[in-house]
């Protein structure tokens, strides 16, 4: 049975991203203590960009053994790794290069390849990294996610076949705008992670945040983000004040 989401509200994006950095380090240290390895799947977007900058800063960089961290990606656009829209390019500039992460610890989705080939290649990469046996889903330590104002997460978009995929770990995705061709982890992979962390900021996300976290009669059918329900892991939503503005007030945070 999936766990109830842990909802945390923050006054602004800076407070949110600093809390996310603390959680990243906490999960990383725990994974390294337990298994001598930390598997983290990264996300694109402006809020993760700020998070990566914080993690690479002097105060935070000293708090984790980066030689034990393997970086993956939740999704990627079908663009070369140097393209301005590449999730890898952003993470490389803000996190990998400043921390001097060796290429052997960075596992990017090959956005320059045809999506089917890139998806198959990335599933093979995941199998090698996680040593999951046939019929078993991989278990990542941390999956970072954002959410679009259409409720999509990673490159799992409303009404697309990727939402109902039940066996594959990585599939092509199709965006209704921007770079249409994508490659994405499936819900099966995301929902078997130890920790899933949504980072959501901005007033334009508030209505969908409320519909995802507080489904009410008459709301549209489940958004992709609402289908993220880890089997046994933790599900956390870090929201700034604007993104949380339509949620029912609570004294939890």
From TrEMBL:
From the UniProt record, give the pathway where this protein acts: Carbohydrate degradation; pentose phosphate pathway; D-ribulose 5-phosphate from D-glucose 6-phosphate (oxidative stage): step 2/3
Q: Which reaction does it catalyse?
A: 6-phospho-D-glucono-1,5-lactone + H2O = 6-phospho-D-gluconate + H(+)
Give the EC number(s) under which this enzyme is classified: 3.1.1.31
Where's the Glucosamine/galactosamine-6-phosphate isomerase domain? 12-237
Instruction: List the keywords (alphabetical).
Output: Hydrolase
What is the protein's known function? Hydrolysis of 6-phosphogluconolactone to 6-phosphogluconate.
The entry assigns this protein to a family as follows:
Belongs to the glucosamine/galactosamine-6-phosphate isomerase family. 6-phosphogluconolactonase subfamily.
| Protein name, entry field | 6-phosphogluconolactonase
